[in-house]
Fold this protein.
Amino acid sequence: MITNTETGKVVLQPEVLEAVVVRFVGDSGDGMQLTGTQFTDTSAMFGNDIATFPNYPSEIRAPQGSLYGVSGFQVHIGSIEVSTPGDNVDLLVAMNPAGLKTNLYAVKPGHTIIVDIDSFTKKNLEKAEYKTNPLEDGSLDNFRVIEVAMSSLTKEALKDVVGLDNKSITRSKNMFSLGMIYWMYNRSTEHTVEFFNKKFKSKPELIESNTKVLNAGFYYAETLELIPNSYTISPAKLPTGTYRIIMGNTATAWGLLAAAEKSGLELFLGSYPITPATDILHELVKHKHFGVKAFQAEDEIAGVTSAIGASFAGNLAVTTTSGPGLALKGEAIGLAMIIELPLVVINVQRGGPSTGLPTKTEQSDLLQAMYGRNGESPVIVIAASTPGNCFNFAYEAARLALEHMTPVILLTDGYIANGSAPWKIQTVADMPEIKNRKITEVKENWHPYNRHEKTLARDWAIPGTPGLEHRVGGLEKDSVTGNVSYIPENHEKMTHTRAEKIRLVKNNIPLLETEFADSGDLLVIGWGGTYGSLHSAVKQIHGEGYKKIGYANFNYINPMPKNTEEVLSRFKKIIVCELNSGQFASILKINHSKFEFFQHNKIQGLPFSNDELIEQFKKLV
Amino acid sequence: MEATSVKKYTFKDFTSDQEVRWCPGCDDYVILRSMQKALPEMGIAKENAVFISGIGCSSRFPYYMDTYGMHSIHGRAPGIASGVKLANPKLSVWVMTGDGDSMAIGGNHFIHVLRRNIDLNIVMFNNEIYGLTKGQFSPTSVIGQKTKSSPYGNTQPPFSPGELALGANARFFARIGGNNPKAMTQIFIDAHKYKGTSLVEVLQNCVIFNDGCFANVTDKDVKQDKQIYLEHGKPMIFGKNSDKGLVLNGIKLEVVTLGENGITLEDLLVHNAKEKDKTLHQMLVRLDYPMATGIIRSFEDVTLEEREDYLTAQVKANSNFKKADDLFFSGETYQVK
């Protein structure tokens, strides 16, 4: 704060922060996801690095004011590199008592909470199971609480707008909070006003009302003496280029579009809606202009079988799902494996087992992806690790499936699939070549199970090609002709061949790299979507002077990179961190038994926090 | 599928080098040969025929056809066939299935494939028993039927495949005895020509586990009296002496005899397979005496591919996105310098 020497009045001077975590919480119908995404987009345009995490209940509209109906959206914005949505919150916006109650634990002591006091009624306090009003009983003394009569101020701002019903008025109070936040973080309302203009093109009264409420919040914060200072977060130093904000599921869908275009194949998606994977379907159904065939099937099994049919007929075929759906698809994936057809299976992991925690994140489908089929049926398993690189690994899944004639399971998770981050746009020309195995030429003595000598991948002869008529099927087949064979030695040979084919994929994937240190005291290992959490924890501990800690994230799980053993041998100790009870650690133990693997596991439906990771690492060095 | 440029095939062109392994005397041989004879008449290039099956005796079918084919997993052939057809609409796609494969383990796919009306063909070998697993009751086994899994008699009431199919909005349904290769061949040709999902139920005798299950309607000496072979546009007439027919009495079909009670040919119902309203088709499908065979329903409707193609053409015409890059750089992007 600076005092103006002429007037003696305190002027507001933006305080410069490196990064800040803001969380918006309210009823699931309060529009918190929209408020959060608007703030995210505006901050990204401003040049901040960002990471977001929506957290919502599985009920669409849970009873108003209830504890389990709280919906939240967290965004981490920074002038520095931001790789997670953040653990602890600098600013909490709580639209009701239930939101306050369920989220207070995350607010850093001394930091700010904005509440809509209009919602702190006796009834709502009871629903939130508060015995006394937390705004009055001193329980929030450690925080800076800003009480705003948001509902009544919203009503007041809209009293002159014609044609609005009460519901529309109540629903726009989230824009009041957004306006306040824009002012607090020195953001312009311009982007959001543009958004209203587009979204409500045919409803001018909604453009007017939302803009009014947004501005009312903005001006209210400006004039309100309750808010003593204003913050700013400078743009981050990201590599130059053209960027956009992208969600993991969108990036996955776009990676598939890029792979289809690059390989010159039509893209076929067979899918059945399931949280949190459905947004991939939602995205791909839009793209008929690229000839995408997105087929919403009657169930998970028809989702994968239609994709197998499309693959047989020469499309780049994909099925998308989450854990329970992968279980249902298991038999069909085994079929695709034995008939050796290219198939991309995307599993956006959620909390399990059974229906589990549909809207929460977990990495507990790894062993299902590896082994969840009858018989010995190895497939390629890879994992994306950030919202942005879902693009690259969806592309990679397609490339490997087509080049090796096999199903590929891509694991993402609810955390990166619904999280968003800046994405430096990649063009199709930037992407690696994809060489599919299609053949059209009729050669003498050709058999459908003729294999490429180096990869063991078979030929892809598709229906409609004269002279290459053949049958495939789930029964064991003769290693040469592909005809049904019950010969014992042949079955053993084919089992080994299918396993070897997957092992050979190691020659077509990059080496494992380490971050922060090439060798030293401790190697932190993670896989897939925990990259952001582990990267930022190792970064922080390095900042504290622990320079001999390295970090390796696995994106390729089956097979693993060729140099895995060599990387492991460069460190004295190894800790494997996973959001499950040790599935990847068990795979490492089987394959690299001479090492000891420490573990850090969390199974709460939540990502790792920085503090818990750092505590673990410190115990080992 | 261009008929003009296709060479003339014989059934041998569609016969694979694999030894057929069905039980001697099985009606499946009849179905196989009827299909191999029907294909040359369809005017399609050999490479454009695709046979997809699930699991069961019927599902060995693709191995015996020298075409593209897939012997897939139990009950899932409709999903795979749908994917094949949507990926390449030029193909003539056939699902070969049985009563268990299609209506028990694959029941869900069966009703949905009929609902969608993709242009593919389904041949259901109905023998009212599970053959490959050696004799358990199936969803079409009759009450009281003694099988390996119902030693004291089956207690589960059966589906009528035709009724189920029509309930799922099947637009083409035909039924034919497994011992009638001539009519079967023609029905396969008609099923292929029909644009939309066609379902052919073959009353298939299982010589080992359910021998004679349709004998009372399909045997040579009774079939003319016990079956009515329906033909579009022709009166519903049957019997060895062509003296019996069907009329509508109230809301029921009734068997009448020509010449009795003043009944003449003009009084008989005339079969209209192309009628959209399926009420009469459902009554025909349910009929026990005489059992209706032939093409019972053949209503021309818009196919799923036609709807999809129409939408795709519209979206393409109105879209600025020609390449994936157009999408990636569309909307809100920003520069980092």
About this structure: Chain B touches chain A through 58 residues (CB under 8 Å). Residues 235 and 333 of chain B are 70 Å apart (CA to CA).
